[in-house]
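Reference record
================
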Amino acid sequence: MTVSRTICFGFLAVILLGTVLLMMPFSTTTGTWNDLIVALFTSTSAVCVTGLSIVDVSTHFSFWGELWIMLLAQIGGLGYMTTTTFLILLTGRKFDLRQKIAIQQALDRPGMSGSRQIIRSIIATTLIFELTGVFLLMTTFVPEFGWREGLWLAIFHSVSAWNNAGFGLFSDSLVKYQTSPLVIFTISMLIICGGIGYQVLIETYMWLRDRILQRQAKLIFSLDFKVATSTTLILLVLGTVAFFGVETRNPSTFGGYSIADKFLLAWFQSVTTRTAGFNSVDIGKMTTAGLFITIALMFIGASPGGTGGGIKTTTLRVLTSCTKSILQGKEEVLLYERKIPLQLILKAVGVLVGSIAAVLSVTILIALTDPKLPFIQILFETVSAFATVGLSTGITASVSTAGKLILIVTMYMGRVGVLLLMSAILGDPQPTRIHYPEENLRVG
């Protein structure tokens, strides 16, 4: 039972538990037993923080069903190992070596020291941001729906946004609040901060603390921080400009709104495509160019250590830096005056190739099970499921049962990661002392 298998089986166990809870009569508004496929699909989507749904969550599930979905999304966002470790801390037990190694691999940390402190920091950061989101959203929801319902709406959407889950309790997601700066920017803040990674947030806190206390020693930001923040900012700006350019004349999405509202709509689309799953416009009515831009941003996803999916921003930067080095005739890859090790480059290539192979395979399978669906919608749905985004052109409920099962596997594969899943299946690599001769090969 390797560490990778422990993590993969842990997610499976949570998904199965969620399926059982969502099947119960008290989890549905009708008070009857829920359909197995609906419960399994919703549980997988919640644990994998995707947000795809084959039913209307607000009308199909009761308060208890919505509560289970929120808790499953919280566990999925934190990660199985983080949640398990937090429970261990609450019981006062000590970590053994296997648990420390599991935490190191789950959080993609360079060392095993400070596991207790990092888990406490993650839980504290999560609570601070989610509570902040609740208070901000209450100012809109409470006056409109009253204290009881307004508070629940604020809590649910804050947790869902922070964990990049994309589940909402409105039938049209956030279309109703598409021009509300408070709701849009609050949800955007939670999505960005949740997806950028805990390491970045912790370093930001340490930098602010040193500035406030006027300490002499200056904090040197890690390469993770520099790459994640700069890449995220670039993608957000480029995404906003791209959506504004291709959708501004589309009467079904941005057309008819003022320039300020169009930028607000374009900004939120750029944010939510980074594995969040909320939508402020009808995705199915976007232009083909807008859909392809969305697919590209969904595939890239969030940053390592965050609550989002995709190939990650750091993977993109390593690969683009490799391309830049080749074009400049350099023999090493540099990022912010730091040399990227070969092992990391190989990992980035493996993530890209594995992700493309997974998306192509799933797209072909769904095209076989649902041949009447348009190709662009199948590809959109596949990338959305694999990158754990949750956006849809509206075909999720109409996909066949076989197609839904394929999407369930795709969401699970996207959440645990291609490399981790393959490691769980094949086992840990065995070290070898055999070295083979080098020979050139023509490529490109």
Notes: Strands lie at 334-335, 338-339. The chain has 18 helices and two strands. The CA atoms of residues 54 and 397 lie 4 Å apart.
